[in-house]
Design goal:
148 residues; globular
Length: 148
């Protein structure tokens, strides 16, 4: 079954002590592919609000969301699944203690990795290191209500 439109997701590039937080988001540890924490966008909330919620649900961390650094999309040709992801810089707004208590039971492991460590870890998207440790940033216009 093909979805009607791509799913929109947000991800947090949390650098702490020059290490990047990566999570494994495959139930039952059935994959060795790693990504940034985050998830699907719910309507009626800004991208920042969605990202704060997703990171808290998956890791227990409280974050401040910064600027977007990477837009990525991927699809699964067999199932027709298509996802567009917006990756944002983020900083910790509290403790760095992680509590893996994902209500969807998807995130099951985490790692703080250096840039060199990321290179040795199977991850997506491919351009992640350049975006995280690079200087470029995209502009983001925050969610505003429509005024009739």
């Amino acid at each position: 079954m093909r979805p009607e439109r791509p799913r929109l997701a947000v991800r947090a590039a949390i650098l702490h002590r020059d290490r990047l937080l990566m999570v494994n988001a495959y139930p039952g540890s059935r994959s060795d592919l790693w990504c940034l924490p985050g998830g699907g966008v719910e309507p009626g909330q800004s991208l920042h609000q969605n990202l704060i919620r997703e990171v808290a649900e998956e890791t227990g961390l409280v974050i401040r969301v910064g600027v977007p650094i990477l837009v990525n999309e991927f699809h699964d040709p067999q199932s027709g699944f298509h996802q567009v992801e917006l990756h944002f810089r983020a900083t910790l707004a509290g403790s760095d203690a992680i509590a893996l208590d994902d209500p969807d039971c998807v995130v099951n492991r985490f790692r703080w990795v250096s840039r060199r460590g990321l290179a040795g870890l199977r991850h997506k998207p491919d351009g992640l290191a350049g975006a995280v440790w690079g200087n470029g940033a995209a502009h983001y216009d925050p969610l505003e209500p429509i005024v009739p």
